Protein: DUF397 domain-containing protein
Amino acid sequence: MAAERTWRKSSYSNGGTAESCVEVSLAQDALVRDTKNASGDVLAFSTPAWRALINSL
Structure:
């Protein structure tokens, strides 16, 4: 599921390989993963939960 999606790197990343960064994939839900461990665990958010998270930041 996660491998077939389009991922976007955080705009706060400066593109360096040593930087900690996350990627997000938005479709019917929101998936978040660690850029340095793309095959690792993924956080999944429903659309309402993702909007609530973003609005609280």
In short: The two ends are 27 Å apart (CA to CA). Residues 47-56 form the longest helix (10 residues). The longest strand covers residues 22-26. The helical segments are 47-56.
